[in-house]
Amino acid sequence: MRRRYRIALALLLALAAALTQIHPCLSQPDRPRPPPWGWDFTPEDWERLRVLVPLYLTVKTVISTVTSVLLLVILVMQIDIYRRTGARFSLGLVLFSASLLLYTIFANPFLHNLVGFRRIGFGPMLIIPDVLTLIASAILIYLSRQ
Questions:
Q1: Is 11 inside a domain boundary?
Q2: Is residue 1 situated within a structural domain?
Q3: With contact defined as beta carbons under 8 Å apart, do 103 and 136 qualify?
Q4: How many domains is the chain built from?
Q5: What is the pLDDT of residues 57-88, one digit of tens each?
Q6: What is the DSSP string of 114-135?
């Protein structure tokens, strides 16, 4: 039964990877592309966004930093529990907490600014948090199946 899930997951991931590679090839380069998700901004809309984005990034930085501190406390507590019990489940929770902590660190706009990515969504900083979420989800699924 587990093998079926693994095969289905592998096929789903392969299909998703293939579709992401095929889609740009099928688009017609001579036709102008529509704005993404139907976004058609007026100059006034751009001005409002220009004012709101720094506020959004500041709020996101504060929330992400507080979340990182809370996850660090959880990680320390889980490591202490693992040291006392030595249970594999506790080790899984340590790995899960560590993965979420790294997610909040890498998703923090302060880190993006620190390493030189000044705009939203450029470089590996866009992908790393999603990879860490994937790892955390896989660990949680593994722990749930035990």
A1: no
A2: no
A3: yes
A4: 1
A5: 888 888 888 988 998 999 999 999 999 998 88
A6: HHT--STT-SGGGTHHHHHHHH
